[in-house]
UniProtKB/TrEMBL annotation:
Domain annotation Aldehyde dehydrogenase: ranges: 24-483
UniProt protein name: NADP-dependent glyceraldehyde-3-phosphate dehydrogenase
Catalytic activity of the protein: D-glyceraldehyde 3-phosphate + NADP(+) + H2O = (2R)-3-phosphoglycerate + NADPH + 2 H(+)
GO MF annotation terms: glyceraldehyde-3-phosphate dehydrogenase (NADP+) (non-phosphorylating) activity; lactaldehyde dehydrogenase (NAD+) activity
Annotated EC: 1.2.1.9
Organism whose genome encodes this protein: Dillenia turbinata
Location in the cell: Cytoplasm
Transmembrane segments: none
Gene Ontology cellular component annotations, sorted alphabetically: cytoplasm
Main subcellular location: cytoplasm
SUPFAM superfamilies noted in UniProt: ALDH-like
Amino acid sequence: MAGNGVFADILDGDVYKYYSDGEWKKSSSGKSVSIVNPTTRKTQYKVQACTQEEVNKVMETAKVAQKSWAKTPLWKRAELLHKAAAILKDHKAPIAECLVKEIAKPAKDAVTEVVRSGDLVSYCAEEGVRILGEGKYLVSDSFPGNERTKYCLTSKIPLGVVLAIPPFNYPVNLAVSKIAPALIAGNSLVLKPPTQGAVSALHMVHCFHLAGFPKGLISCVTGKGSEIGDFLTMHPSVNCISFTGGDTGIAISKKAGMIPLQMELGGKDACIVLEDADLDLVAGNIIKGGFSYSGQRCTAVKVVLVMESVADALVEKVNAKLSKLTVGPPEENCDITPVVSESSANFIEGLVMDAKEKGATFCQAYKREGNLIWPLLLDNVRPDMRIAWEEPFGPVLPVIRINSVEEGIHHCNASNFGLQGCVFTKDINKAILISDTMETGTVQINSAPARGPDHFPFQGLKDSGIGSQGITNSINMMTKIKSTVINLPSPSYTMG
C-alpha cells in the first residue's frame, strides 16, 4: 500500500514529505498542496509546499554531494542504479496504486510504467559504463602544418547539478529517464515532480533512497510552481535542466541562461494515410495511438490526414473499433479513463464545441461526466477549426480528408509543433520520401507515433523541444568534453 511498509517514512499524518540531504522532511512553511483524484474529483493526497529557502538548502547539498559523487568509480555508480531498479520493480504495486489515484492511469498500464522505469534505469547503468568509459586520443599531425608534438586526450565529465521536471502523464518513467542518465554521468539531481503525479514520484525517489545513494545526491522538492517554479529554473546552482511538459518549457528556456537544456514540449502528431495503406493496420494504430491513456500522451496521434478515396472506409473501421473501447474508472482497467483535471476536460470541450459550431461531423455523440470524456472521432475537420492545430490531450481525434500527399505534408509542416508523425503505405519508397519532407523529430512508418523503446533517440523540432532524449543522448547531454593536451619537446612517431 502507498505510504505504508517501507514507504512509511515518507508520510507525515496525511501529508507526504519532501526529500533532502538523504532524509524525508516536513516543510517549514506548514502548508501543503492538495492532489485531486481525477476520477472522484476529491482530494486524494497532500504534499509539502516547500519554500525558496528550502530550495536553497537542497541546491547547496546537491553541489557538495556532486563533487564526491564525481569521484565515485563508474562501476559503483552503475551498481547502485541496478539496485535502485530492482527495488523499484519489487515495489511496483504501491507505486502503481498512486498512479491510478493521482492521474487515473489504468491499473495495468500503471504497473507497466513502473516496470519499464526499472528496466530503463538498468539499461542506463549498462550504457553509461560503456560510453563514459571511452575517451578519444588525437594527434596533432593530422592537421596541416603540424608535426606530431601534441597528444590530446578527451573524456566526458559531469555538468554538476541537474534539475529534472517531468510531466503528469508519466511521472515515474519520465522522471527516471532524467535521473538515471544524470547520476551515471556523475551529476547530482534535483527533482521537481508535477503536482498530479508527485506522490508516485516520491515513492520512486524512496526506492533510490533505499538503494543507498549518498546523502544530498538526489533531492525531491514539492510545491506550487507559482512559488518555487521560477526560483528553481533560474537558480544559479543549476547546471542543466531536463524538462518535459508544455508551454512552460518555452518560458523556462527564455529565463534559464547559459546552461544546457533538454526539452520536450508536446506535439500535434499527424498520421498520413495513403490510398494503398492497409486500412485494418491503420485503424488499429489510430485506436492505439490516438486513444490509449485517453489521448494524454505527447506522442498520441493528434490528427489523421487521409486520402479522400479511402477516407470513408477508414472512418468506418476506426468507428467500429472505437465502439468497443471501455469507458470508466482506472481501477477497472478501462480503455478510456478520466482526464487529469477539470481544467483539461474544459479545454477539450472547448475544442469540441468549436468544431461543432464550424460543421465537423461527429461520428459519436459528445458525452462527458465530470473529467470523463467518451472517445470521439471528428470527421470532415477543416483547417479553420482549432482542433486541426491545437493539442487536445484527450480522447478526441480529428480527421482531415486530403486530395494529395502534398496537401497532407503541408498541413503537417504548417504546425508549430514537430515532435513525431507517421505515414501508412505499402510503398516503402513513397514512405521514405514523405518521411524526409515531414518536419518532425521522428517519423514512424506503418505504426503509430511512440516514445520508445527508451534507448531510441526522441526529439522534437520547432516548438516541440530542444535537444534529444533517449538513454544515450541523455547521458551525452548531461556531460561536457574535457581535453588534456600533452606537449612534446620534439616530434614522436609510433614505430618511426
